[in-house]
Amino acid sequence: MSERPVFNLLRNNLQRSEDVQTWLVEEVTKWAARVPQPVLKKLLSLAGSLKALKGKEGQEKLLAIVAAQAGVGGDEFKSSDVEAVRRFTNAFETAQPYFRRGASSDAWVNVLIAHIVPVISTLPDDVAVAACKALAEVSPNLTATQAVAVLPSVYAALKAQLPGPPPAVAEGETAPAPKVNFSLVECLLFAFHAIAAHHRTSLPELCGLRVTAQPVFTGQPQDIMGTPSENRAEKALFVAALQRLAPIVNDFQKKFVAARKKLNETKDMDKEKRLLVQRAIDTTRNISVLAQALAKEQASLVPAGRIQLSWRQRQNRGDGKGKGKGKGGQQQQQGKKKGGQQQQQGKKKGGQQQQGKKKGGQQQQGKKKGGQQQQQQGKKKRKSVGGGNNNNNNNSNNNQGKKRQRGNGAGGGNRRRSRGPQRF
């Protein structure tokens, strides 16, 4: 059965009954172990849109499909088979989204720490790097029991990747530079820090490093019996190897920084080239931070949250300069935009407030003018009212005076007639 009929079946039956969806999941599970990784991703993307595979239980079913190809949960895993390890690492990368959504990774972690990590040094470089990346991804979330079981294997794999003592050479000859797989060293150093943080008290006996406070001797038996012995000889070897690693890492980091500078000067916008250079810089920087923390006199463990692994930065940061600044740059730009918008809105509001103040001032001026007008009108009214009364009073007085004069004139005549001489 070819892959095309399977995809057609999925597309044509996505919205049908739950029985049909369950049957489709069973068919996809059967074919998952036989198809290549790219086809498996297509199957999973189509199966993920089924209603029956929503929620945590659905994620577990999808993860079971991936596990069928990885050889997880079946017969005993054969770590001696390089192709089996390669299939596991490819499937593990595909399974990461389901782990983040709540699906259990216990079976995968058990295969990784019990069968693959102990043989990392014997695997081809590409398979070993993929296995170490998987280890680095899960190491911060291991349990204390898992950490105790896998820490010795991680330490042994890390020591195997560190540069050894320089070989003896004849006088006048230069010893060849040791070869270092920086990708492997970054993954193993990160995993060592993260796993050792789950069980710090095992480090003195394992590698001679003490990352906890020096115990205070009080003379009690438990002070002696409960304190792990320090493996001083192993510590000297481990620290010396880390010190030999430091100048090699610094030299390579300088070369990559110079290469990035040249790309910027020549304005070479080849994204793939810039990505490789930036990833190399990030890798060497992480190695320097992690190695220096272990090599100093008072060793310490770097928290996993302080290290951003180089392959993760490929998606988040880009080349570190230019347009591809990643989420941080986008957030800063968005923050600037929001800040600018807020400032503009604030200015607009301030302008509106000023306009409001102007309007308020104009209103107050209008009120003053209105009051003045009212006062003037009131004065005019008073004047008009007062003038009218005076005129009326004067008119009435004049009329009364005239009447009196008329009255007196009439009466006087009579009186004068009455008072005149009488004729007999």
List the defining traits of the structure above:
424 residues; mainly alpha; 15 helices; 0% strand; disordered C terminus
Characterization of this structure:
By secondary structure, this protein is mainly α. Helices cover 71% and strands 0% of the residues. It has 15 helices and no strands. The longest helix has 94 residues. The relative contact order is 0.05. The C terminus is likely disordered.
Outline:
The chain has 424 residues and is an all-alpha fold. The protein has helices at 3-12, 18-32, 37-47, 55-70, 82-100, 106-116, 125-138, 144-161, 182-196, 203-207, 221-225, 232-265, 271-295, 310-316, 326-419. α6 crosses α7 and α13 crosses α14 (310-316).
Tell me the layout of helices and strands:
Blueprint: H1 3-12, H2 18-32, H3 37-47, H4 55-70, H5 82-100, H6 106-116, H7 125-138, H8 144-161, H9 182-196, H10 203-207, H11 221-225, H12 232-265, H13 271-295, H14 310-316, H15 326-419
Helix pairs in contact: 1-3, 2-3, 2-4, 4-5, 5-7, 6-7, 7-9, 8-9, 9-13, 12-13, 13-14
